[in-house]
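Example record

The entry below shows one chain as it appears in the dataset: sequence first, then structure tokens.
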Amino acid sequence: MEGSRSAYFDQLKFALICLVVIVHAFGYHVEQNLNLGALLVFINTFFMPLFAFVSGLFHSDNHISKRFILLITYGLYFKALEWLIGSLTQHVWGGFSLFKETTIAWYIFALALWEGFSYLVRKVNPKFVLAGAVIIGSLAGYDAMVTGSYFFSRVIVFFPFFYMGVIADKEKVLTFIKGKKSARLTALKFTCMILMFLYAVICVVCRNKIWDLASLVVPTTLLTEMPFKANILTRFAYYAGVVVIAIGFMAIIPQKEIGRGIFAKWGQRTLQVYIYHIFIRDIFDKNGWAEWLCSSTYRIFLYIILNVLFAIILSQKVFSIPTDYIKNNLFKKNQEV
């Protein structure tokens, strides 16, 4: 589905999927530790927008209907797996509803919608599409119906980041990250890195009011209900800030293969990590292990390391068998996806 690959982008994807696993692992326990809350708000500011951007980089107008169907199928596979495991463990399952999607499947369904819409507007001037997407994403903060939907608020607010990837050139992005051909680009890159670290410091220093900041980076918060005076310019500032922080994060990812390419290989299998990690999270939550691990700072570091290990384990080839089977057998033979 992704065409030509780059070790850099795969290593970036692996770093991002590790952040996804970490954020989901700690999500129910942030109130136990303000430093933990600061860490999660910092990560939440950029990790899904950046994941959307990277996904957009590998968008292609070729075989769009097949990719759309494949992504929907992946999402339904997760929902079926969730139902099966929930039934076997006697866990109450809320049923399937696309319009009220609150599980991790939202991103898979969102990718399908973003892919399809990007194809539909392929002949429209990208500048108008991006500007319109940012304006709509900002105005959505005033709409209670949109912000009240976990799924559609994220689809609308995060779409501009995906579309930035669609219209960006992978080679130019790599050139910018390497920053070897232009002193200005190098200065811009390092400025973004410094601003990213400053933002991380602000999250820690202001941890007593961290939930005020969290309301800015969560798409389900109405602008009129934020704990501080906010308007459409606030959301514009959010978009600009995320771009700066995302560039800073991208700049710290090594451009060359590391670990003889093993990290890049893991980065090619983020889908399976995304689908299965949530079940490990649930095991730790339901047995009280996560609460215990989040009860002290040193155990928090231990839990972070554990979740990175979980991401590595789930990146192994054996866990790709179900999704590979779906991809290879969903369509008639000799039908490229």
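Notes for this example: The chain has a mean pLDDT of 88. The chain is about 70% helix and 0% strand.
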